[in-house]
Amino acid sequence: MQNKGLIKFFAILFALVSIYQLSFTFVASKVKNDAKAFAGGNPDKEAKYLDSIGKEKVFDLGFTDFTFNEVSDKQINKGLDLEGGINVTLQISVKDILKGLSNNSKNPVFNKSLADATANQRGNQTYIDAFFEAFEANSKGSVKLASPEIFANRSLQGEDGVDYQMTDSQVQKIIKRKVDESVESAFGVLRKRIDKFGVTQPNIQKLGESGKILVELPGAKDVDRIKKLLQSTAQLEFWETYKIDEVGNFLVAANEALKKTEINKVQTNTVVKDSLSALLSDVKDTAAVQKGNNPLFDKIVAQGGGPVLGMFLPKDTATVNGYLKRADIKILLPAEQRYVKFVWGKATTIKDAKDKDVEVVELYALKGNRDNVAAMSGGVVTDAKDSFDQSGKPSVSMQMNGQGAKAWEELTGKAYTQKSNIAIVLDNIVYSAPGVSSGPIAGGRSEISGAFDVTETKDLANVLRAGKLPAAADIVQSEVVGPSLGQEAIDNGTNSAIVGLLIVSLWMMVYYGKAGWYSNIALAVNLLFLFGILASLGAVLTLPGIAGIVLTMGTAVDANIIIYERAKEELRAGRTLEEAIKTSYSWRGAMSSITDANVTHVLTGAVLFIFGSGPIKGFATTLLIGIATSLFTSIFIARIFLDRNLKTKNDLTFVTNFSKKIFNNFHFNFLGMKKWTYLFSSIVIVVSIISLSTNGLDEGVDFVGGRTFQIRFDKPVETDVVKAELANVFDGSAEVKVFGDNNQLKITTKYKVKEHGVEADGEVNKLLFETLKHHYAAGLTYDKFVNAYDGKTIGIVQASKVGPSVAQDIKTNAYWAVLGAMLLVFLYLMISFRKWQYSLGAIAAVAHDVIFVLGIYSLCYKFMPFGMEIDQHFIAAILTVIGYSMNDTVIVFDRVREFLAGKTKGNFADIVNQSINTTMSRTINTSLTMIVVLLIMFIFGGESIRGFIFAMLVGIVVGTYSSLFIATPVLVDTISKEDKNRVEKEHEEVIL
């Protein structure tokens, strides 16, 4: 081997750099363990401890030192499935941005196009492109985007703005830029909020030009609080309010009108004697005020007063909204109140007649106007901080700029004179509606008070300081993982990695003897390099990423196996050890096969990386890095030891007493079996297609949208019972399966998955808790059931949500990923082998493998004791199977090509059969190590990746079969008779 010294130098240098990079991970881990021990299980105390030592030196190398913050930035970060925490994808509403850019245009074509874009947006199509497409179809040239009533308005005119003479294509470029600027603004606002939240190592990134923003908060535990923090648009407004006596007559009239349509539907609580019911005191018929006779008033559960019209249960707010928005009800409003806005307050808890805590929300009536604009906007607020009001209760104080101070003085002066109230409204929720008792308030200082705790005021002040989002931000995808589940994942992954490493290493020693030891050393160096690169790139390690590392161990020895098998052939042919090693490392020996096999693997890994997201991208990252490091260590590191042995002992045989006779003089008529294998595979494919058509697949929420909860109980529960209970509250949408142990369930529902607000998520969580809490011992609270904390063993340990639009994007990406991988490999093989028949044989084998695996999943998902959902992890498994199947097929094809161009005797079929037989040792060895490693992962890897591993396990077995019994026969059957005759004639001439 040339330049051996240079290779040794770079290998040692690379090893030292890898150890240096990994040292930060070890130091950071030690400091975090110290923090956990100090905090004693208190997450807030742990976070404060880590924050306090952020700038302290914790790592001294003598010539330089590092603070904890610097060490943390350089460590291998753990993904949510290992660390625990919250991962959300926020969709910035491009629809709202477009409305804002058009100054809320009333143009019917514009508004219909917005609605059509929402309804018809295709998978992976951006909303803005869908809008432009819809606008072109709706306008048909009758109106332009540059119309003064759409985008050529006053706010968009001027330099770099929209001119009414512009074409639609010119306007589109400007609007796209403006939308990008708004998304960038939202990105900045969210980053400010997160930076103040106190989570260590948060990650926030824009996802292309889709308007989506990914936020990862490792270690975060308070689910509802974080979602509220992220989704709050911080649209702060100050509105004048009506008092109850001003709108009471309308409410009475509305209640009377509703009796005509709702009286038979109403089944609610008895009306409470309050200020509204007092308005009914002159009603003669006492039956009129009995339970069930007052559709609106029967829903009032506590007295109002002043600006508060009454208190209602949260579950009744949608019904009341529906009543008040009805055209036949709104017409009852007096002319001066026709623009009234009915808005709900912040949820609070009161005592009912039985002294039990009841959560209620207050109803307010705001003095609206034709333009639906508040008396004052929150844009004038320059600073906000959490504080305490005069009663010592948590509040938020605000400071306004000069313009705001003047407007605030006028507004408070008017309220003082009229003895009215000012509602402080944030994101369409009234937080407080104080009156003004001491005259106009000068100086621009104001305060938000209400039913707050200290945490809420801190978050509210944070949101107001960071500024408002330019548009609504909906959580379209989310995942919550508890820290206890993350630790289990680490333990499972570590166990499977160690056991897999030991088994692969042991097999290499048993089968190849001393040469096996050399490959094991190369494997150890490979793992060092792999982790070193992951650390230097700042990569995030996930559970599928660990699976990728374990899989790398299985494939790392593949190149060594190919080289060793070739060296054994050369030794049996009478070559010296030096000649055998030199030949096996040549292009004519093993290098062409290794190159072709790994290029196909890289292509499928690259497709995974491009189309995957989150954990799948982590899997692809480790797989791609593993391929590169495996090639380097197998080809160069192992070669160093082989050459060293050659110069010292010269005793390598690449066999042991156990393996020396295995596959020697192995002869099997593979092509002779093709009728039977074709028949068997045809039956399997037909059965698979029938099952896929009738039985379908268990599509996970990644593909269809929905909410998934992994819930642990303190004792075993009956799935049928839980399913019936949840179906009752989730409108029939509830799927319940045992997930691992029989005290753990996986619950899937589509209930309110299209509603992205915090209220919808909170409602689902509360319904889940209220429905299931009787299965637990007494004392389990909502917070303990929903939120994560160290040592959590019951309640929600993992939760995820995928909105329908995201599910469509994921499904589209999956299709393109599979088709793209197959197309890329087909083209590469056609270029590499210069005959389309090789590509066709390989693609036929891959298609066979994919249908086979899909068929198994379709046939078995209903009764298998583990999850067999079709999700992103499954697509990763399918692409891995494609890569492996191609890898195995290429090795066989390389030998077929070599033998067809060589001096092997026999007819065409005999030559092909001999070429396959000579690859059997390599095929079985590689497949066996892969299967054993996957079995270990299947057993020890944990429930969450069991279905993913099973798909790869089936795929590897089927891929080995197809490379021998499908790919090669298809190749032989599609080669023309003329080519076969030519090959046979050439071999006859060689023999002569």
TrEMBL record:
InterPro entries associated with the record: SecD, SecD/SecF_arch_bac, SecD/SecF_bac, SecD/SecF_CS, SecD_1st, SecD_SecF_C, SecD_SecF_C_bact, SecDF_P1_head
Stretches assigned to the Protein export membrane protein SecD/SecF C-terminal domain: 473-640, 793-974
Boundaries of every Protein translocase subunit SecDF P1 domain copy: 184-240
Full protein name: Multifunctional fusion protein
Gene, per the UniProt record: secDF
Record-annotated SecDF P1 head subdomain domain positions: 374-471
Domain of life: Bacteria
Species name: Flavobacterium frigidarium
Organism phylogeny: Bacteria, Pseudomonadati, Bacteroidota, Flavobacteriia, Flavobacteriales
UniProt function note: Part of the Sec protein translocase complex. Interacts with the SecYEG preprotein conducting channel. SecDF uses the proton motive force (PMF) to complete protein translocation after the ATP-dependent function of SecA.
